[in-house]
Design goal:
With 408 residues, the protein is an alpha+beta fold. Helix content is 39%, strand content 23%. It contains eleven helices and eleven strands. The strands form two sheets. It has a six-stranded antiparallel β-sheet, with helices on both faces. A hairpin with a 3-residue loop joins β2 and β3. α1 packs across α3 and α6 packs antiparallel against α7. It is elongated. The chain starts with a helix and ends in a 6-residue tail after the last helix. The N terminus is likely disordered.
Amino acid sequence: MGTSLRRVVLGAAAATALAAAGCGYACMGGSAGGESAYYLAEATAGGVTEQLIRDELLREAVERSRGGGGRAGETAGPPGPPTAAPKPDPERPARLVTYNADVHLVVRKIAETLKAVEGIASSAGGYMQRMSARSITFKVPSARFGEALGEVEALGELARKEVRGTDVTEKMRDLKIRLANSEEVRKRLVQLLAKCAAVKEALAIEKELARVTETVELLKGRIRFIENSVAFSTITVHLNSPLPQKAAVRPAPFGWVNALAGGISGRRSGHFGRGGVKFEPPESYVMPRSRYGPVRAFSADEVEIAVARNENHRCGTLEFWSKLVRNHLVKRKVIAVTDEADLELASGAKARLIVGTKEIGRKRYGYLVAVAATRRQVFVFQAWGPEAEFSADLKKLEGAVRSMRVGR
């Protein structure tokens, strides 16, 4: 737009604005039929529309806001520098935000990664909150939240991550206001109680004082909880692996070995062995007749004995069988071994004794197994029962083991 046309448009805009305001041009020191009327007529004659006038007036207002505008009808100077960003208000309190992160990782070894995550939490000044077989939750100081999160992500392949921030500023402010009000009420109640002479009124005040005091303590506890949540951020790590995490424990190639300790949980196995073994049962034990299966004996306190023999194999020494039996019991977590010993039987043969315990449900049982081997046969003596009764009979059970009659 040329200068003359711009002058016409701005003059017309000014005249229009003055007319809308109910003020004639004479109030500015001119006449209503003077220069402004001329501008308006010239604008109309030149084809300047009312919309163009409004657009030009708006542009002029924008230029003025930027510091470059002048009087209506004058060419505005170049726009000034952009307005500087507002400075932060030093009196405005900082926002209180709690941060929580959930990280899903794919790793090779879950158990090792759990230990590594626990180490990250400890080195960052945090602590482990809870842990399961495949996940761990820990807290770290909020200042080291990002650092700890990055170290966790580097432990494996990141499958998914979610970080949440919760603003608790208003909640904290409300709690502190409620706490201040409750403490003021408690203070007044204490003062009122000191002045109260009537017993009935004193009891009523004490009851209300107790209620207000409880409210004060609850509010303090909630404030401490939020303060701790702000100071310490929470990270939960979920672990998964495409690889098996436990080495497969193969069963023994001998059925009677796999059947050991089955009687504790009530399982009976026909693979345990044959009978025909002679021994002296402990005093107060009853020995039912058994023609085919293991020789058994029972006490009135639910302690049970089962003795059987199995075929030996070439090179099957006592050392081999006792080691195989122990590996089966321990590696397959059949029992927890508590004692072991070498025994000499009445016939002069050697035997290996293993004693342990097993917990089923909320009840603990005692267990004993003794192995003796000859060139042709392997003899196995088992005993089990409730831990207290089993422990009371342990010496008698060892005596029964020594009484087994086996060849050499």
